[in-house]
Design brief:
Layout lengths: L9 H18 L15 H9 L3 H19 L2 H9 L4 H29 L1 E2 L3 E2 L3 H16 L25 H4 L1 H23 L6 H34 L2 E8 L13 H16 L7 E3 L15 H11 L2 E11 L3 H4 L7 E10 L5 E6 L20 H4 L14 E3 L2 E7 L6 H9 L4 E6 L9 H16 L3 E5 L5 E3 L5 E4 L6 E8 L6 H4 L4 H46 L1
Parallel strand pairs: 3-4, 4-5, 9-10, 10-11
Antiparallel strand pairs: 1-2, 3-14, 5-6, 6-7, 8-9, 11-12, 12-13
Helix pairs in contact: 1-2, 1-3, 2-3, 2-5, 2-8, 3-5, 4-5, 5-6, 6-8, 6-17, 8-9, 10-11
Length: about 550
């Protein structure tokens, strides 16, 4: 392998990030999904990051690699902005590019840390890369999931979503722990290759950490296999009820048309009736996000929904817009409340058709369901008129459908682990994901959204039911295994037995802090980098001063 003292060829430094970007794009869900590539996808990136002579060059290389990858990963944004946002293709492509640059900035910073902190002067690659690389990668993932309301889209750990035997450790440290292992395996393989081709000798103590890492990965694999069997057995003996999920496949362009309301309700009632009459008694029916394209408390069509629920004696969870009116007297008392507040909600109707529960979406989509800092962003006022003005909810209390205590996740919320975790802590024994992925069209986004949702079931050891307008809808076991799922853009009515699990996982009790701990250690790595940079600048300054003194001394001798 090339050492830092012998910079790689320019062609190689350009090919390496491109190769990593290609391998990641092929490995992640959406187009190909060849998940085994995740074990080697980062090796070219690590090689280029470490062998480039300067931190700035390494950062630019990381930016280039991640930019290519995220453009391929997020290309569905152009469909959303062009088809439903009314933006010109050029503008939509520009937005995609800017978002990809933002996402890539974290990888650039990762490459800078690898470049500066994993090389032993005169001795080549340090074995500490086995810890520095995964810690920094996960820490930066956590930062990306928090800054600017968060964009934790498709972290590497989600790449194993359809391999249940590889993701069971998520109940210890969440999907971030799976990402940690993926990066660590790449770093281990890179370190071993470097040892094979390097001309420098390696101290025996360097191999101690490598052996410990191998043992930890072996234990993680063993835990995952044993845990899968254990949870599968627990789910088989847990109380089970029949739940139905309905996929209406309503065209997004017609979804909010007043003339489509009657047809929309009729389609959901017809599909639900098919599910209820299919065999075993259905306890709960789940409809997607905004399946009811109207405000239920002022729409006559709502009576048909209530009558159906009452006639079939079922519970119904459905997505719907909702609003509340705040009395004017609050203004006199000095309480800062808006007179009317709008919510993106999940409603629960009981056997009598009565609305007995409501969950309001908490993590709203910026520039989709609200405009952040709208008073300051005066220059996008035309966009403000087209964006929803929803109020975020503030309760994690499950929807109580008798034996089922459903923790609701509405659309975007399924990619944020803490929402499902807090709902489980509040007593949810089932997770219900309501979404409308029609915005994405026939792109990779629905598959990616489905992949991220599956990890919520494993982290909390809860069955998960997903209802999507155009797909993917389905059932996920507490092990992450998918029992049934729909195709995209089809009308579906699926039923399945779901296990009602209780109890808290290590992730729920404290393991969710694993990612935050990695972020804290990344901060320490940053401080170390700054200290080393300051130390290096001081040495360079002292060397220049010494050379200057030597030159002055030589001049004085010449004059004498």
């Amino acid at each position: 392998m090339t050492t830092p003292n012998a910079p790689p060829h320019k062609v190689a430094t350009l090919a390496a990030p491109g190769l990593s970007a290609l391998l990641l794009a092929l490995a992640m869900p959406g187009w190909v999904g060849c998940w085994p590539l995740l074990f080697i996808a980062l090796i070219p990136l690590l090689w280029a990051a470490r062998t480039l002579p300067s931190a700035a060059q390494s950062g630019c290389m990381g930016l280039f690699c991640s930019l290519l990858y995220h453009v391929s990963l997020l290309c569905w944004i152009v469909i959303v902005l062009q088809r439903y946002g009314g933006l010109h293709t050029t503008v939509a492509t520009g937005v995609l590019f800017l978002l990809a640059v933002y996402m890539a900035a974290y990888t650039a910073f990762f490459c800078i840390l690898v470049n500066r902190l994993t090389t032993r002067p005169g001795k080549g690659l340090s074995v500490t890369i086995l810890l520095i690389a995964p810690v920094a990668w996960v820490g930066l993932d956590v930062a990306r999931g928090w800054l600017l309301t968060g964009m934790p889209w498709m972290d590497l750990g989600y790449g194993f979503y359809h391999q249940p035997l590889l993701i069971q450790a998520a109940d210890l440290g969440g999907h971030h722990l799976i990402t940690f292992f993926i990066v660590q395996i790449n770093a281990l393989l890179y370190w071993l290759l470097d040892r094979i081709f390097s001309q420098t000798r390696t101290a025996k103590r360097q191999y101690v950490l490598a052996v410990m890492v191998c043992l930890s990965l072996y234990c993680a694999g063993g835990y995952s296999m044993l845990r899968y069997q254990q949870v599968d057995s627990e789910a088989a003996t847990a109380e089970q009820l029949v739940v139905a999920t309905v996929q209406g496949n309503i065209d997004q362009a017609e979804k909010w048309s007043p003339t489509m309301k009657d047809e929309t309700v009729e389609r959901y009632l017809s599909l639900s009736n098919k599910a209820v009459q299919g065999g075993e008694r259905v306890h709960l029916v789940v409809w997607p996000e905004t399946a009811l394209p109207f405000y239920p408390h002022r729409e006559p069509l709502m009576s048909r929904v209530r009558d159906f629920v009452k006639d079939k004696q079922i519970y119904l969870i459905t997505g719907s817009p909702f609003f509340t009116v705040t009395p004017d007297r609050h203004k006199e008392q000095g309480i800062n409340l808006r007179p009317v507040e709008y919510f993106n909600s999940a409603l629960l109707l009981d056997h009598s058709g009565t609305l007995i529960g409501r969950y309001n979406k908490q993590h709203l989509v910026p520039f989709g369901e609200y405009v952040p800092l709208r008073d300051f962003l005066w220059f996008i006022r035309p966009l403000v008129e087209l964006v929803g003005d929803f109020t975020p909810g503030n309760s994690f209390k499950p929807l109580d459908a008798d034996k089922i205590k459903a923790g609701a996740l509405i659309c975007f919320e399924s990619i944020f682990p803490n929402i499902a975790r807090q709902e489980t802590a509040e007593g949810a024994n089932l997770l219900v994901s309501l979404t409308n992925d029609a915005w994405y069209g026939k792109s990779s986004a629905p598959q990616q959204s489905w992949a991220m949702t599956i990890l919520r079931a494993v982290e909390n050891r809860r069955s998960l039911v997903r209802a999507a307008n155009t797909g993917i809808s389905g059932f996920v076991a507490p092990t992450g295994a998918v029992s049934r799922k729909s195709d995209l853009f089809t009308e579906e009515a699926l039923t399945d037995n779901v296990a009602l699990m209780t109890g808290q996982t290590v992730f729920g009790l404290g393991g969710h802090w694993f990612g935050t701990a990695c972020l804290a250690f990344t901060g320490l790595l940053l401080l170390q980098y700054l200290w080393l940079a300051k130390k290096q600048r001081k040495k360079i300054f002292q060397r220049k001063q010494e050379l200057l003194r030597q030159q002055q001394g030589g001049s004085n001798k010449a004059e004498m």
